Structure formats: structure tokens, C-alpha cells
């Protein structure tokens, strides 16, 4: 997955945890006694770590809560004492699980209303993320669920495989791509996975399913062979996921992807960044092992794609 590169900019990631107490929106701030400051849960990327993986890890370490990442929030870029730039990428996030027990350098987590948080924040720059959360909440699109489209990983070439094509397995690179998908799908709290029954698709998402304790569901409509005969079945699988509204992922093949992505693009507003990202994926294709994450607000006919992120193999 897309990982940080060594540059003069120091990369970090975090999230604005949010919840509701009755009808009242609350966000979580963390206090660092070393600096006596209040800010969002965040931290630097480890070597080779992706932005979303770091965000989920840092939130868990600093708050004791495992998050499900939602829509991306504005980034912060600022100068550090030694002259380096620091870039922090943020997401809105809900609590999936966790005890809230504190470790590391945080001694307090405070759940506050946006007005209270505005006063408590130690840094003016952190107000950008707070305002974005408030704006999304007012628009009724803060609460989203992820729908992840995955193209299977690198596989043994057709010319080198003497058996039926659906049995063609991942190669070494594909198996590594499948492992790299695990923390990405975990950061978005994926609970349901449907996949083409072809071995190269099934085994791309199998490592995450095993780690999360999820039963993979094979759908013939996502296979190349069925798609060639009955392309409408691929669209039907998307419609069912939209109706269910569960954090979901589907894994399929290059010929099937345009049909899936066109349906999702139809749920996004023209001119918005997500619409453009989906258009790029439709026109240019997805890389093998790539995951495209759509944050969806609403269900069924009312579903709307609010953001789209691409996680390409490293």
C-alpha cells in the first residue's frame, strides 16, 4: 500500500474521534503532559507504514479506542523547530471498540462539544479539522460507511498456467500485496467481504478475512467468466451492498471494474474530488492489489459517495 517516502517533510497521521451523546455531537481531544497541550490524537508514521495504518494505530495507542476511519479531513502542514515541515493527515473516525485505557504519553482524553473543543485546543491550526467535522455534521454526511473496491493482486501469468483460469493463483508479489491490504482494510473496519470465486481474487482478501474473523462470500457475478455472459450481475452485487450499508469490500477483476466504478461514480457529485478520482480509476484502470475506498452516506437509493481514496501497492 502507499507508504511514506523519505523526504524533508516529516509525515504524521491522526483522526478526530467523534460520537453523539443524545443529540449532541462530541469530539475527543488528548492531553500530553510533556507539552501540556490539547490536540487531536496523532503521531509520526513508522518506516514503511501507510497514512491510514498510522492514523488507526496512533488513535488506538493514544486513546485506547480502536477507530473506524471515515471521511478525510483537512491536512496540517507547518514548520518544526529544526526547520523541517511536518505534514499531518487526518480523518473523521468513530469508535469501533476499546477500553479507553491510556498508555504512552497521553494522560487524559476529553469528550467535548465542538464549542468546548474550540476553546480547549492549544493550536489554531487544529481548528480546521474541527470545522470540517462540524460542517459535515450539519450537512448530515459525517456518519458514513466504507465501501472498498479491490482489484486482485499480481498472479501467475496466463501463459504459464496450464489449468483452468479461475484456479490461477497469486504469485509472490500478489501474496505480499494481500498481506499489505490487511492493515488498510482494518483501518476502515471492514465487516463484510464479497469476492469473485477465482483463486486470485479470493486469496487477495483472505488474509484480512482471517485476521478479522470474517467469512468470505464468493459471488459468481464478480468473476470474469460470468461477467462476460451476464454483466448485469456485477451491478446487482453493488446494489445489495448499498442496501445493506455495512462496512464492506469487494474483490474482482479488471474487466468487471468499470461497471462497478461507474455505478459508484453515479453516486458522487460532479466536480467533487471523489467524482474525479473515480473517473481516473475508470479511465486509467486500477493497479493489481489496489484498494479504492469510497465513504458512503445513506443507504440504497439515498446513498451518496462523499469521498474516495486510492491505496496503491508500494
TrEMBL record:
Its EC number is 3.6.1.55. Pfam families: His_Phos_1 (PF00300), NUDIX (PF00293). Keywords: Hydrolase. The lineage of its organism: Bacteria, Bacillati, Actinomycetota, Actinomycetes, Micrococcales. This is 8-oxo-dGTP diphosphatase. One of its GO terms (biological process) is ATP biosynthetic process. Residues 8-134 form the Nudix hydrolase domain. Signal peptide: none annotated. CDD domains: HP_PGM_like, NUDIX_Ap6A_hydrolase. GO terms for molecular function: 8-oxo-7,8-dihydrodeoxyguanosine triphosphate pyrophosphatase activity; bis(5'-nucleosyl)-tetraphosphatase (asymmetrical) activity. It comes from the Bacteria. It comes from Flexivirga oryzae. PANTHER family: BIS(5'-NUCLEOSYL)-TETRAPHOSPHATASE [ASYMMETRICAL], DIADENOSINE 5,5-P1,P4-TETRAPHOSPHATE PYROPHOSPHOHYDROLASE MUTT. The keyword Zinc does not apply.
Amino acid at each position: 500500500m502507499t507508504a511514506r517516502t523519505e523526504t524533508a517533510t516529516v509525515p504524521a497521521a491522526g483522526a478526530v474521534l467523534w460520537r453523539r451523546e443524545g443529540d449532541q455531537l462530541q469530539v475527543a481531544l488528548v492531553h500530553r503532559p510533556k507539552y501540556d497541550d490539547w490536540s487531536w490524537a496523532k503521531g509520526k508514521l513508522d518506516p514503511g507504514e501507510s497514512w491510514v495504518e498510522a492514523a488507526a494505530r496512533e488513535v488506538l495507542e493514544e486513546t485506547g479506542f480502536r477507530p473506524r476511519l471515515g471521511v478525510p479531513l483537512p491536512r496540517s502542514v507547518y514548520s518544526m523547530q529544526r526547520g523541517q515541515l511536518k505534514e499531518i493527515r487526518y480523518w473523521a473516525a468513530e469508535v469501533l471498540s476499546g477500553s479507553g485505557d491510556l498508555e504512552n504519553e497521553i494522560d487524559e482524553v476529553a469528550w467535548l462539544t465542538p464549542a468546548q473543543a474550540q476553546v480547549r485546543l492549544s493550536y489554531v491550526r487544529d481548528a480546521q479539522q474541527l470545522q470540517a467535522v462540524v460542517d459535515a455534521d450539519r450537512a448530515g454526511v459525517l456518519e458514513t460507511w466504507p465501501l472498498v473496491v479491490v482489484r486482485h493482486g499480481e498472479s501467475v501469468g496466463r501463459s504459464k498456467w496450464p489449468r483452468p483460469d479461475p484456479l490461477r493463483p497469486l504469485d509472490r508479489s500478489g501474496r505480499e500485496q494481500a498481506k499489505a491490504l490487511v492493515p488498510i482494510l482494518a483501518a476502515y473496519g471492514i465487516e463484510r467481504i464479497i469476492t469473485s470465486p477465482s483463486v486470485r481474487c479470493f486469496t487477495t482478501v483472505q488474509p484480512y478475512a482471517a485476521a478479522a474473523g470474517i467469512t468470505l462470500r464468493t459471488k459468481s457475478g464478480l468473476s470474469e467468466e460470468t461477467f462476460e455472459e451476464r454483466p448485469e450481475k456485477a451491478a446487482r452485487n453493488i446494489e445489495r451492498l448499498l442496501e445493506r450499508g455495512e462496512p464492506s469490500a469487494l474483490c474482482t477483476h479488471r474487466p468487471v471494474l468499470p461497471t462497478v466504478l461507474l455505478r459508484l461514480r453515479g453516486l458522487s457529485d460532479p466536480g467533487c474530488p471523489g467524482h474525479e478520482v473515480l473517473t481516473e480509476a475508470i479511465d486509467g484502470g486500477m493497479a493489481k492489489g489496489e484498494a479504492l475506498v469510497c465513504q458512503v452516506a445513506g443507504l440504497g437509493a439515498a446513498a451518496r459517495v462523499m469521498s474516495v481514496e486510492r491505496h496503491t501497492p508500494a
